[in-house]
Request: fold
Amino acid sequence: MKAGSQTDGSSTSELFKQARSWLEVDWRRLEKSFAGREDLFRGKRILVTGAAGFLGFNFLNFFSYLNTKEGEPVTVVAADNYVRGHPRWLLELANADPHLISKRCDITLPWQDTEMKFDFIIHAASIASPPVYRKFPLETLDANIVGLRHMLDLARQHDSGSLLYFSTSEIYGDPPPNEIPTKETYKGNVSCLGPRACYDESKRVGETLSAIYAQQYQVPVKIIRPFNNYGPGLRLADGRVLPDFSRDALNDRDIILYSDGSPTRTFCYSADALMGYLLALLSPHNGEPFNIGTEEPEISMRDVATLLLRVAGSNRKVVHQVSEEADYLIDNPNRRCPDLSKARNLLGYSPTVSLEEGLGRMLEWYKYYVELEEMIKD
Ligand SMILES: NC(=O)c1ccc[n+]([C@@H]2O[C@H](COP(=O)([O-])OP(=O)(O)OC[C@H]3O[C@@H](n4cnc5c(N)ncnc54)[C@H](O)[C@@H]3O)[C@@H](O)[C@H]2O)c1
Reply:
């Protein structure tokens, strides 16, 4: 079946209902690992920035799942500037859940709404896809530095219980072999110039800003360093590697690699990553970083492409090609793999989804629900 094709011609709303119940497998697993701690979100107001993005999709759907259960509802304000349009799944979710308020806003401008106070702020707005941040370097810097400062000020004014700042594993740059798996104590090997610098360096400044607000103003900000997440909600046209590989596999094409296939990464399934993010949000560890991801398998691009073809049931192969983008491989890290001992010991974080299972779920999402990724101009 081709990506985006549908099995039964049902309406988008019907498709959305199916998607919601299909996603429940992830939320039930998450709920089990929280063992009741998810109730700490009940009756609370949560601001999610970057809500229309991949991680926003997962946060919103999880909170909305909690709202289908008994107990006080979680009120979520879903903020995004919708630069690439308003995703259909978000319109459908806001129609289905009266406790979800969708709000267009640009976080590089000061927060305007003074009415609602937030107990928690999940600040996920950024430009995260490499081809997009290479195209919009100044907007990337502004979202990661100016936008974060606005959110830190908002948390301070509202006396919020906790703020989650999304840094990145990219702040480590290209670590030497003796620093892999990489601990939070490794200081990084990052270029301040070059095509990736707008992202990597602004995320580093973001950590500095967060630590200063925690020390000087006691803002309860948590710093997360995610390592390559994937799963439902990551748009097929996003530009990150696994959606690109999935698009090729689902369209019955060979997978094209724009490197020699040797760089390695670890890939963390979205529901596992969400567990780490929410545990950090609820933790008392302010102003200090946590790696969130998986330690294994550390897999080469060639091998993950081959695995994805196998999971997709495709007979196609992996081929190499030189990217038309001259900057494509500049400063691309050779290896990336987290040491998760700190998150395991202090947060109780414990990812469980295998790469094979996670890829299977992501492919299933694309097969059936790609229509919900459609961007609506409004
Ligand atoms: N997903 C990962 O594997 C990963 C890895 C490392 C770091 N992160 C970080 O986690 C956060 C979320 O990542 P994601 O994968 O969901 O990214 P995403 O690109 O899917 O979503 C980001 C969202 O932010 C919005 N946005 C961008 N600039 C904005 C602005 N000025 N005002 C309001 N909204 C704006 C975009 O419209 C988009 O919907 C980002 O900070 C990203 O850098 C993610």
In short: Residues 1-9 have pLDDT under 50 and may be disordered. The chain is about 40% helix and 15% strand. The two ends are 31 Å apart (CA to CA). The first helix runs from residue 12 to 34.
